[in-house]
Amino acid sequence: MIGIDPKVEQLSKYNVVAGESSVSGLSSGAFMTVQLHLAHSARFCGAGVIAGGPYRCSESFPKAAFTPDDARTQNALYICMSPLVPSVGPDAEHSLRLARNTAAEGLIDPLANIADDRVYVFTGSKDTVVASSVVAQTRRLYELLGVTGERLRYIDHVPAGHSIITTNPEDVPLGLNQPPYINRGDFIQSHDVLNHIYPWLKPASERLTGKLIRFDQSEFFGLAGPSMSSFGYAYIPAAVAAGAQARVHIALHGCKQGYNYTNYVNGRADVQNMPPYGNRYITTTGYNEIADANDIIVLYPQAEGLDDVNTLNPEGCWDWWGYTGGDYFSKNAYQIAAIARMLERLGG
Asked: Which of 59, 74, 162, 249 is most buried, by CB atoms within 10 Å?
């Protein structure tokens, strides 16, 4: 367990190796991982997708409703999470066509960057939130993009619910599907992800040497307020702070996992009923320990819930279906652009 520095700091620049950053996420963070990876593939060498679907999944059936916004929402709920049968779920070939069109317009980096990346894709066999058939299409998309052989690790046999897995005894049993979506198993999944992306890693530190800082996110997205929290977090190993060469890993939480998640009732935040697990993804999922031993900065951007006339996102999810607008999947998307600026600040 690690405490959070009470101060608010500015992100600094470190000695980061260009092109060797990586990203992973759970659930909405996994969908966002795919979008961020494809949008800025020149900056990344790998990705970890835990219970997430393929690129632009919410546009699987664009005529599902009268308006594009409603169609994306319907697709997100009924196609990209729990299709009745796999045949009506997302299709990797369709996703690839959308990605190619987007790259041809210059809105994301060239797809050729992805073929030599290392990608980890996971679906729990007891996941009732995002169906395994959906996640299988994510694997297929990466295969179509040229990620094959030992570079692509696909796991679908672990009897896990919708969660990131730890060995923490206080986490919920492995097969459950409930908040905070951190389940107890016999391995630490964040270590699994990073060991696949960076096969040369040393074992995780037993005692942390670095510092978990809080920084002002608003300087990276301005006044637009794209359903992102006031603060983000980053773990900086001591050796990196002293000038050692580093990599950056971006860890994207899922819905209901941001530090300031609250329930929304009739459009209002029920601040008297805030769940007591807001910083668990930052402090207890194991990213910091393996990063500490291997000179990896872990960046934890934070999404927050909004439920008003402009934004329907009460559960604090990352925007993978377009609640911030139709251009939610490109370099120009509010959240993707904000996270890219954070990475740039760190030196990545």
From this structure: 249
| Active-site residue identified among 117, 127, 171, 319 | 127
Are 39 and 329 contacting, i.e. CB atoms less than 8 angstroms apart? yes
61: confidence class by pLDDT, cuts 50, 70, 90 = confident
Strand, helix or coil at 130? coil
Which residue in 21, 22, 24, 27 is the catalytic one?
27
Burial grade of 105 (CB within 10 A; 0-12, 13-18, 19 or more)? exposed
Tokens 């959240």 label which residue?
335
Within 10 A of 67 (CB to CB), how many other CB atoms are there? 8
* Structural domain of 86: 8-346
Q: Could you tell me whether strands 118-122 and 44-50 are parallel, antiparallel, or unpaired per DSSP bridges?
A: parallel
Predicted local distance difference test score (pLDDT) of residue 266: 73
Does a structural domain hold residue 157?
yes
Q: Is 1 a member of any domain? A: no
Specify if 3 maps to a domain: no
Q: Give the active site residue among 37, 40, 162, 253.
A: 162
Burial state string for 296-324 with b = 16 or more CB within 10 A and e = fewer than 16 = bbbbbbbbbbbbeeeeebbbbbbbbbbbb
Q: Is residue 2 part of a domain?
A: no
Tens of pLDDT, residue by residue over 257-273, are 999 888 777 777 777 77
In angstroms, rounded to a whole number, what is the distance separating the alpha carbons of residues 164 and 253?
A: 10
- Is 162 a catalytic site residue? yes
- Using DSSP's 3-state secondary structure scheme, residue 300 falls into strand
Q: How many domains does the chain have?
A: 1
The reply to whether 132 belongs to the active site is no
Question: Within the chain, how many helices (H) and strands (E) appear?
Answer: 10, 16
How far the first Cα of the chain sits from its last, in Å, is 27
pTM of the model: 0.95
27 given a catalytic annotation: yes
Instruction: Give the strand pairing for 231-236 and 296-300.
Output: antiparallel
* 267: amino acid identity, one letter: G
The tens digit of pLDDT for each residue in 209-261 reads 999 999 999 999 876 668 999 999 999 999 999 999 999 999 999 999 999 88
For residue 156, the SS3 value is coil
User: Among 192, 174, 222, which residue's Cα sits nearest to residue 337?
Assistant: 222
